[in-house]
Structures are given as structure tokens and as C-alpha cells.
Amino acid sequence: MDEPFGTRLRARLDKYGPLCVGIDPSPGLLHAWGLDDSPAGLERFSRTVADAVGDVAAVVKPQPAFFERWGSRGVAVLESVIADLRQAGPLVVLDAKRGDIGATMAAYAEAYLDHGSPLAVDAVTLSPYFGFGALEGAITSAVANDAGVFVLARTSGPEAARLQEPVAGQVFAGVEAANAGRAPLGPVGVVIGATLSSAGHPLDRLNGPILAPGVGPHGASPADLARLFRPVRHAVVPSVSRAVLADPGRVRELTLRYRDECAHHLSA
Fold first, then answer.
1. Within 13 Å of residue 59, how many CA atoms lie on the same side as its CB?
2. CA-CA distance, 188 to 174, in Å (whole number)?
3. CA contacts within 13 A on the Cβ side of 26
4. Of residues 97, 182, 242, 257, which has the active-site annotation?
5. Residue 123, H or E segment
6. Does the annotation mark 15 as catalytic?
7. Least C-beta-crowded within 10 Å: which of 37, 135, 162, 173?
8. What is the DSSP annotation of 28-81?
9. What is the pLDDT of residues 114-161, one digit of tens each?
């Protein structure tokens, strides 16, 4: 990589439209696809999704938990899928939600953001609940490696609001500071659930990308994106998983449908 994450993300969104497709090989989905709940089934599922969306989605987001539950065999599948995706072209965001302090945070950054790591991706999701300052090492590593991070800010789970609302302002302030002066998008994004009624913050100050899960079965529609993110439509990356993964024969078709619907509403 020789361009900053924000520049590469902007180019992908402009070329392919605003959509992130999750790779979530849960036991339920493996069963629905007629696959064994095994590393072999995991690999078949993941490669099918990667092949279907790699040339039409701007971003692909593997969920490592579904790989890690198989130990080293599952992680080996994840490494292989990440390598194939990065060669195919979409930006890869690992939805790891890691967070810690000091040397441990540095180790997470090395694992997911360092060019030499077998798990290296374009961006990783991070939890800020050790304090936003604890993310400094990961942000520094992201910048050094032309990568990015997405920090949990206002997620869509109903149990999250009471915990997140009092501290979300600190997260947003940290993101603003980290992205100051960077164009077209800074390396530090936020995760904001698309099902929320309000983000509770003037998002046009962030100067970074917004990963917006919750579109599809979770309850948000492409039209809701335009309402919630009106001032920053250009920076929104809607994320879909089950909405396009339920039928193995329609993954590409449904990805294109959601991509085009999101693009329509966010550009209107």
C-alpha cells in the first residue's frame, strides 16, 4: 500500500458504491448453506462470498470470532481469505473490536495493521473503553502502514445506549483530533449503527469514514441512511451481512441490489 487508507477508501467508494459486505460464517448460516460446521465448511462459505462480492463491493468485513472458534485451523482459513480478498481488490476491515492498553494494544496493532503480518488488513474495528488515549498506538501504527481503524461510538444493539451515550462525545472528540487536517478522509473512522434515531453528534466534524451496520434484517433501510447521515453521506459505508448471505445462490445479486439502493439514497 502506498496511499493513505482514507484515499484508498474514497476511491473504492467512488468506483464501486457505498457498501461493506460481512463474511459471517456462523453455525446457523453454514447449516442453511448445507455446509458442515467445520473448518472445511468455513472455508467453502468464506471463499464463495469472497468470489461473489470481491469485484463489486468496496469493502469486505470478515468477523474473526467465527474463525477463531476453530482455533489454529480456523485462523488459517481467515489468513487465506484475507490474502485472497486483498489480492482481488476490496478493502478488508477485520471486525475484531479489540481494545487494551500499552504493549497489548501495540500487539493487536502489529497483528492486524503491520504489513508483514499474515492477518494484516486495511482496517480493524477497535473498542475505546480503556480510554481513547489507549488507542494512540494503534492509530499511529495505522498511519505508518497506510491503514485505518474504526472506533466503536454508537452501536445499534439495544443494550448499548445506556453505556455508550455518556461517553460517545469523548470518542467523537478523539476522532476529530486524530483526523484533523487529513483529506479526503482521515484514517480514524467510527462505527455508528444505522438503526439509531440520531447519532447525537455533529458528524460533519469527524473528517473520517462511518461504518454503519444494521442495514437489512436488523431494521435499517437504505432510506434510513440518508436520514441519519444527511450531512456526511459521502463518508458512510453501510454494512450488510445476513441481508445478503442467507441464500448462497443470491449473494452477488443481493449485494448489487443493496449497493445500488444505498448509492441511490445516499446520493439523492
1. 33
2. 9
3. 9
4. 97
5. strand 123-126
6. no
7. 162
8. HHHHHTT--SSHHHHHHHHHHHHHHHTTT-SEEEE-THHHHTTHHHHHHHHHHH
9. 999 999 999 999 999 999 999 999 999 999 999 999 999 999 877 888
